[in-house]
Every structure is written in C-alpha cells, then in structure tokens.
Design a protein that fits this description.
By secondary structure, the chain is α/β, with parallel strands linked by helices. About 25% of the residues lie in helices and about 35% in strands.
Amino acid sequence: MTGPTVPDSALPRVLHLPRVLQGALWAHARRDAPAECVGAIGGYERPDGLHALTLYPLPNIAADPVRQYLADPVHLLRALKAMQAEELSLVALYHSHPCGPAVPSRTDTQLAAYSVPYLIADLRGGSLLAYALPEATPVEIVSGPD
C-alpha cells in the first residue's frame, strides 16, 4: 500500500506530539529491541502543524527486523481504518534504530511511501527526530501537554 506523493515542501514543518504519546512510542521501541519497532500516528492538521492524537504500534515483518522495518500491511490497513472511523488522518509514521543514530538510513529513504513525517527513535542515544522523506528534511517535534 502506498500513499500519495506530495512534494516535501508541502509537508507541515511541525509535529505536535503529546508527552504521553512520546512515552508510548519509547515503550514500544524498548519492548521490541533489539528489533526495530514500527508504528503509525493518527491525528489532524491545523495551520500551526500536525497534531498527533493516537499511536498505533504495528508488527515488524521485515526479513531482518534487527536491521530494518516493514509494517505488517494488514495491521497498517486496520490502523488506517481505525483513524478514518475516528475522523483522524495519518499524520506520521515511526520506527526505531536500536543502535542509533536517529537519522534516516538509505533503506528508510528508499521505502518512504507516505507523505507524512517519519519519526526515528534512537535507543542508544535517546533522541527522537522527525524527517520528511525521501528528502530527509527535518520536521520539528513539539512536545505538548497530554
């Protein structure tokens, strides 16, 4: 399943991510380590950026989950349908790099199929960064109230 391709310049440059969702994302990354975790984030867009409301952890079905991720398409479709039922949109995707760094790999940029920010959690360094892919343009993450 691929998403629409929108020029990177059309993506919002800010993602508002409540601390409770950041905590859930880090918990997912730690739970799946040493494999990479993967998940989707639902929310909405406003003039001040993207606002995350829900986190959907997804199974990583990659052949080598310690080195790459591939979201289970059945579970991703279920997450997208759940977002639609809640009148939300896909606002971001996330995955972890258990051994760091929090920068997109060549595989990350080559497989980017959705025009949303991609968050990368670096378990070794403790950083969470977001990018518009495939260009790898940084997207600011704003920690918000829960």
